[in-house]
Amino acid sequence: MTFSKSFPEGFLWGGATAANQLEGAWNVDGKGLSVSDVYTFDINTPKERWLDQWLGMTHAQVREAQDPNSTKYYPKRKGNDFYHHFREDIALFAGMGFKCFRMSIAWTRIFPRGDESEPNEAGLKFYDEVFDALLSHGIEPIVSLSHYEMPLDLVTDYDGWPNRQVVDFYVRFATTCFTRYRKKVKYWMTFNEINCVKHHPYVSVGVIEEDNPHLEQDKYQGAHHQFVASALATKACHAIIPGSQVGCMISYQMLYPHTCHPDDLQACEEMQRVSLFFSDVQAHGYYPAYTERMLAEKGVTLQKVVGDDEILRLHPVDFVSFSYYMSSTVSANPEKLEGAEGNLITGGIRNPHLPTSQWGWQIDPKGLRLALNQLYDRYQKPLFIAENGLGAVDTVNPDGSINDDYRIDYLRQHIEQMQEALADGVDLFGYTWWGPIDVVSAGTAQISKRYGFIYVDQDDMGNGSQKRSLKKSYHWYKKVISSNGQDLTD
Q: Fewer CB within 10 Å, N side or C side of the chain?
């Protein structure tokens, strides 16, 4: 018996973005406000408060963002102006040899309020043009339907996903997209990082935490409605687009028990389950046995409509995709240990064996191999790495070059671990780097936290020419793709 570390023929190499972080043009061609259009940025705000909005929007902040006279800067309304640069940007992706491009459709471009009966033709036309540009370069679109972009009106007028009506609004949106783009898009994802509702319910399910006495109930009721909506969308996609593939997408942070004490192992298992519960339901088609206790201990009683369980059972996803940026350790007594400051929404304990990024994220390439094996062992479905990347401050040299060797090293180490997972027998069919071009950060709303192979001349307050230029990593990733992952040399 032999095993191979080679990537399969037709492996989908590419990059990943989200409409709310790069498109801009927030009020162009009939687009409505989304939940992400509410995030502000102030260069004078202390760094430790940059995530405050991401983790919990207030009613006052939402009302102010709806005020046309607000003078605050909302970075995600500007993005990097992909809306007007998409042909240029896609040509640059093609220059790297992209096989695929993971992107999202802004719900508010198609249904500006979310509850309309008819779609916005200008929004539909824009994505027609984007898909045509991708396909003309031989790049396969991989489309997320909901990537932190639900219409803000569904939050203010319907109280978000805990309201059953939102299921119908989403299915109408999804069906409209499947019908319109049935000849252009084969791969779809229903919800981005669906398990992150446990950390940021506002942007995930449209629930404002402030003064909410039923927060846990609303989180998981909203998640249940997303499960049903995902299954119904999967059913519709398979009917409308023969041969289509629909995936779920979770945020996956590899977790290790901090010590070999049984209590740490139990705490780690429980935290992992809270995250994997979401993909368990979508991939297996049912609520696993452990969720009964998990939900009871949170004081959650799900309200289901007759037929919900059958819908989940009949229409599970075809593949499992995930984001992977870091790992963390878990302790039964975290208050006695040093926290991992940069692990953002997930917290955790600092691992002394790992280096960290400039934003404090613990870099763990070997954790990616472990994650791939865990997920494949659990689901036995094809896997897709939807996000993986390194945010860093890039320096433009006097000659215009950007030597981001740190990004190359990060990418090389993670690809090497993907090769190991392939040799382990994991069915992995694609990888998209987050993000191939500099975009506004989801959590901190900065563009100076750069991930791209393509540099965008723009600062955190939106100033700059938005000129695109190539970093050293652009040429390195091009070589990786042309060799199908075999040439990882400098």
A: N
In which domain, by residue range, is 316 found? 12-482
* Bridge pairing between strands 245-251 and 187-189: parallel
Give the CA distances from residue 128 to residues 83, 182, 276, in Å, rounded to whole numbers and listed in that order: 13, 11, 34
Q: Is the CB of residue 471 less than 8 Å from the CB of residue 452? A: yes
CATH number of the domain where residue 327 is located: 3.20.20.80
Active-site residue 88, yes or no?
no
Angstrom CA distances, 90 to 86, 114, 143, 167, 252, stand at 6, 28, 15, 33, 28
For residue 7, the 8-state DSSP code is P
Number of domains in the chain: 1
The tens digit of pLDDT for each residue in 159-170 reads 999 999 999 999
Length of the chain in terms of residues written: 490
pLDDT 10s digits, 248-269: 999 999 999 999 999 999 999 9
Q: Is residue 7 part of a domain?
A: no
| Residue 193 annotated as catalytic | yes
Q: Which amino acid is at 134?
A: L
CB 487 within 8 A of CB 480: yes
Tokens (6 digits) for 317: 């996803």
pLDDT given at position 261: 96
* Tens digit of each residue's pLDDT (9 = 90 or more) over 81-125: 999 999 999 999 999 999 999 999 999 999 999 999 999 999 999
Please classify residue 58 by burial: count the beta carbons closer than 10 Å to its beta carbon, then call 0-12 exposed, 13-18 middle and 19+ buried: middle
Instruction: State pTM to two decimals.
Output: 0.96
Alpha carbons 175 and 235: distance in angstroms, whole number: 10
Select which of 23, 210, 387, 420 is catalytic: 387
